[in-house]
């Protein structure tokens, strides 16, 4: 009798138990849908290899590994003594106006002589040949003055070229960041085959990189604000920098990059992080 009663009770409770299980599964799925996470890591916003496009001996090195630099800071300088002399020489030549002054004076004298011969020709005291020769010599004097002025322009251009060549012996930081690695030290030769001098990384802005499935890429768009959490409990907001268009052949995923402001330096490159969405 009791066994039959239990069976009846179980039969009566069975729909409620099934309903409870179904409700529990629904809640779990809904919670997972609204609280999904992706695991990724941080990278510097930019990493560049500062190099020289000219060979030479590294004359000065102004940074060490781990040093912080500002945009425009002098990182290093190659031996530039010959280039400095060349720039000084071209400056001297550019500032010299002897040729122009001499050509201008010669032209002024030829103009006076030509005017005098024209006057004599009118009075019949000079021949036609003398007048023609005077016109020719005047034209030559005018051409010499034009050539002297063009030479001045050429010297100015040559000086600018020498100045650029001299400046290219110096390597400046294109942006603020940290020196991640030093490849060449003072006294070493920088060759076209090995032009790298230092590695500079930008750390005031970081990129959080995540691998996402193609089916979830539609949930993200450039400029979208998302939250990124770190192992120490820190949660920061970032802006989606880009959603990769290419896929990794092995994993079948594409990269999602989130731009994180790191002006205070609290975040470090290489940290593991999670994207909350």
Helix/strand-derived class? alpha+beta
User: Tally the helices: what do you get?
Assistant: 4
Q: What's the alpha carbon Rg, rounded to whole Å?
A: 40 Å
Proportion of residues in extended strands: 25-35%
The run of helices and strands is HEEEEHHHEEEEEEEE
Distance between the termini: 56 Å
Low-confidence stretches: 1-9, 25-35
Largest β sheet strand count, sense and barrel closure:
6 strands, antiparallel, barrel
Kindly report the spatial arrangement of strands forming the biggest sheet.
1-8-11-10-9-12
Helix content: 40-55%
Strand segment tally = 12
Account of the 3D structure:
The chain has four helices and twelve strands, in the order αββββαααββββββββ. With 277 residues, it is of the alpha+beta class. The strands form two sheets. The chain has a six-stranded antiparallel β-barrel. It has a four-stranded antiparallel sheet with strand order 5-4-2-7, with no helix packed on it. It is elongated.
Topology:
Layout: H1 2-34, E1 37-51, E2 56-61, E3 68-69, E4 74-78, H2 81-95, H3 98-122, H4 128-167, E5 170-172, E6 177-182, E7 189-190, E8 196-212, E9 225-230, E10 235-243, E11 254-261, E12 272-276
Antiparallel strand pairs: 1-8, 1-12, 2-4, 2-7, 3-6, 4-5, 6-8, 8-11, 9-10, 9-12, 10-11
Helix pairs in contact: 2-4, 3-4
